[in-house]
Write a structure and sequence with these properties.
- There is one protein chain.
- This protein is an alpha/beta fold.
- The chain folds into 2 domains: 2-86, Winged helix-like DNA-binding domain superfamily/Winged helix DNA-binding domain (Arc Repressor Mutant, subunit A, Orthogonal Bundle), CATH 1.10.10; 90-302, D-Maltodextrin-Binding Protein, domain 2 (3-Layer(aba) Sandwich).
- The protein has helices spanning 7-19, 22-29, 33-47, 63-83, 100-117, 131-134, 169-174, 184-188, 205-211, 230-239, 252-256, 286-296; strands at 52-55, 58-61, 93-98, 122-127, 141-146, 153-167, 192-195, 225-227, 243-247, 261-262, 268-279.
- Strands 3, 4, 5, 6, 7, 8, 9, 10 and 11 form a 9-stranded mixed beta sheet that branches. Strands 1-2 form a two-stranded antiparallel ribbon.
- A hairpin with a 2-residue loop joins strand 1 and strand 2.
- Helix 1 packs across helix 3 and helix 2 (22-29) packs across helix 3 (33-47).
- The longest helix has 21 residues, at 63-83.
- This is DNA-binding transcriptional LysR family regulator.
- Keywords: DNA-binding, Transcription, Transcription regulation.
- Residues 5-62 form the HTH lysR-type domain.
C-alpha cells in the first residue's frame, strides 16, 4: 500500500494536522487549499480510513488520524535530524562513545570546553560499558579500553592504565597517616573501596595486590565498601570513606587540585590503556577530525 502513496501526501497531512486548517497548511507549503484537500482525500482513499472530521472550516482528527499524525511527525523529525549535518552553515553533529568512567571522569569536561569553543557543532555522547555499543560504526569517534588493536578502529593512545591507591587528604588526616609512607601491608589493613569487575581485564584491589613485586604478607580482607561502578568507588574516596584504586590518567584533575592523593609508592602498569579511535572503513567529517585532534592535545589541569 505504501508504494502507491506519494510521500508528498504525508508532508501535506503533517502540515494540515499542525495547522488544523487546509488554507493555512497550503500557505505554509506554497500550494492552494484545493491541492491540500485533494492530497488529504487521496491519502484517505489509499488508507481506507477517514483522517479528519470536517465541520465547515474547522477540522478535528479522527482516532486513526491521530495515530497516523504521531507516527508521521516522529518520522519527519527523525529525517530532519538526520539531514542536519548536510545543511549549509551548520557545523553538523559528532557522535562519540565512551565508557561511564571515562565519560564522567575525563571526557565530559573536555567536551564542554570543545562545545563552548565551537557552538555550531553538536555533540552526541553515548555512554556505555558494553563493548559492542562502544565499537559500533554508527559512532564517529570512540574511546576504548584496549591494548591498542581493533579490527574496525584505528586507535591512538590517550593514556596508559596506571593503577595506584588514592585517598582524600581528610581520610588520611583523620587516621594520622602519611600516605606517602604506607607500605602494601599498611594499605591492605585500611578501609579499601572496590568495584565490581564486569570485564575480565579490569583490575580490582585483589588482583592489584597480587601483581605487586612484594605482595602484602597479611591475608587480604574483603573491601570495606564495594560498588557496582568505578565512578561510585572514586566518589566514595573523594568523600573520605577510604582508599580506592585510582586509574591515574582518569583522575588527573582530582589529583592536580588535591582532592585525592597517592597512597604508598606502588603503581601498576597493566598493559592496557584508553585509546581514541577513528573508524577504519568510514570517512569522518572535518568536525570529527577537529575533535579528534583536540582530545589528543595535552591538557593542563587548572
Amino acid at each position: 500500500m505504501l508504494d502507491h502513496i506519494p510521500l508528498e501526501a504525508f508532508r501535506v497531512f503533517d502540515a494540515a494536522c499542525r495547522q488544523m486548517n487546509f488554507s493555512r497548511a497550503g500557505r505554509e507549503l506554497n500550494i492552494t487549499q484545493a491541492a491540500v484537500s485533494r492530497r488529504i482525500k487521496g491519502l484517505e482513499d489509499h488508507l481506507g480510513a477517514a483522517l479528519f472530521i470536517r465541520r465547515g472550516k474547522n477540522l478535528e482528527l479522527t482516532p486513526q488520524g491521530e495515530r497516523l499524525f504521531q507516527r508521521v511527525r516522529a518520522t519527519l523529525e527523525y529525517l530532519e535530524e538526520s539531514l542536519e549535518p548536510f545543511r549549509p552553515g551548520t557545523g553538523g553533529t559528532i557522535a562519540i562513545a565512551a565508557s561511564g568512567s571515562v565519560s564522567h571522569l575525563w571526557l565530559g569536561r573536555r567536551l564542554r570546553d570543545f562545545g563552548k569553543e565551537n557552538p555550531a557543532i553538536s555533540l552526541r555522547l553515548l555512554t556505555s560499558d558494553t563493548p559492542s555499543d562502544l565499537a559500533s560504526e554508527n559512532n564517529d569517534l570512540v574511546i576504548l579500553y584496549s591494548t591498542g588493536e581493533h579490527p574496525r578502529w584505528n586507535l591512538t593512545l590517550l593514556m596508559p592504565e596506571l593503577l595506584a591507591p588514592v585517598a582524600s587528604p581528610d581520610y588520611l588526616a583523620s587516621r594520622g597517616l602519611d600516605g606517602g609512607q604506607l607500605s602494601a601491608d599498611d594499605i591492605a589493613g585500611l578501609d579499601l573501596i572496590d568495584y565490581e569487575r564486569f570485564n575480565a581485564h579490569w583490575i580490582s584491589f585483589r588482583q592489584w595486590f597480587g601483581r605487586l613485586s612484594s605482595p602484602p604478607r597479611m591475608r587480604l580482607q574483603n573491601p570495606r565498601f564495594s560498588f557496582s561502578t568505578y565512578i561510585m568507588a572514586i566518589d566514595a574516596a573523594l568523600r573520605g570513606d577510604g582508599i580506592a584504586l585510582g586509574s591515574l590518567g582518569l583522575i588527573d584533575e582530582q589529583i592536580a587540585d588535591g582532592r585525592l592523593v597517592r597512597v604508598g609508592a606502588e603503581c601498576l602498569a597493566t598493559g592496557y590503556g584508553y585509546y581514541l579511535g577513528l573508524p577504519k572503513y568510514k570517512t569522518v567529517s572535518p568536525e570529527a577530525m577537529q575533535l579528534h585532534m583536540r582530545l589528543l592535545e595535552p591538557r593542563a589541569v587548572s
